[in-house]
Amino acid sequence: MKAVRFYCIWIIGMLLAVSCIGNAEQKKVETSEGVPYVPFSNQSEGLKIIEALNKAYGDNPNVTGDFIGSIRCPYFLEGHYFDGNTLVLQVRGDTLRARKILEDVSGSKAFRIEMMSDSTFSKKQLKDLLDELNRRYKALPRGRLKTNMVGWGSTLHFIEVTFIRNTPEARAEFCRLLMDSPAIRFSGLEEPVRNNATGVSKAHGISLYPEYTVYADTASTVSFILLNGSGQHIICGEHYFITYEGKDGQWYELPINTVAVDIAYSVAPGSSRQFVARLYPKINGNASGHYRFFYDVFGESRENIRMMAEFRLTDNYEKAKRAEKTPIPKMIDGNYVEAPKEDEQTVYQVVEEMPEFPGGMPVLMEFIQKNLRHDKAEKRERVIIQIVVDKKGNATNPVVLQSTNSTLDKEALRIVSLMPKWKPGRLAGKNRNVKFVFPVVFEPSILTRNKF
Question: pLDDT at position 451, please?
Fold first, then answer.
């Protein structure tokens, strides 16, 4: 099948303020009164004040607003932000004296002073905390906590850390391994979210299959294959979601990392795309049961099709190890044709690892010569035998492919009944029923040699 063709890249608009782990700061998300922040177009007076303060205190006059924490900035000034159209300057200490100085430097009184205290955190403090958090995060070994953290950044007065699962255990682990500060707030899924969404596994010639229908409940990833038999290009991306069936019979969404820069792919007609989804077993403690994988695709008309594929997780690890790949249809004459389903009676002609007599072919020939009744033949004769070595290694279903006479045929077939177990043939990591052909050679001269 043809490879998937890269199409375009777009940035998802609903990212957290920090879309990548470790970004320095997040945009202001609320006002000091807790009202959601809305961009205003009439902030010109405040911007003039920031520009004046930048010239007076900034290390780089070409970077507007980057003066908090610089050597030239007065110790009492620790941050600034807009509350609507009003510029707010964060000040620690004597606010009257600070206002007088800032008015003289900026040439304006069009700002508000916010007095910092031990219970509030300024922009400067949050920046210093973020820098330290970034440093500690980089030094932290890869593990459950690092996997669970999907982003962090500063809000107006706090640092917000977002988890895949925001549990008491996750918060305690963060405080123990990274940072314990009253300036940190946590977000993320705390309780299971019900999601009874459904989709289709086949629509308009498009099909979605799980690579395996059963995985171990400890599996970190599951794989899916999208087939495009629609006759037109389809678009798909990196985003997906997974649900699981709870003990109450309801379906719930499996917490995963949804913060990402998305990539769009164009899948040509007759092509496929393989997709790997993460299950986060160490974070979610995934239980055995039914799961559903959802993946949106778009046709050339931009119509959204929600594809769905079901799979199971099991705590029977031997069963998971023996799981066989889902038969994937093949493209024939522009159409996908379902592959025949294998059953216990399926017999292969050729597999990756062919059956083997214990010790190999030389030992097989030696076994035949030792146990064969050579006096059944008057001269050197050869009979070609075919057997099926089953999944357990038994030599079964012997048939004569090339015969000399019926007496020798019976003797050759008798030899098969004496054989020990073979090493079974294997395909895709599984034992298979496999045909095997070998010669049975009658040598009357062996009897002559044995007389002397």
Answer: 42
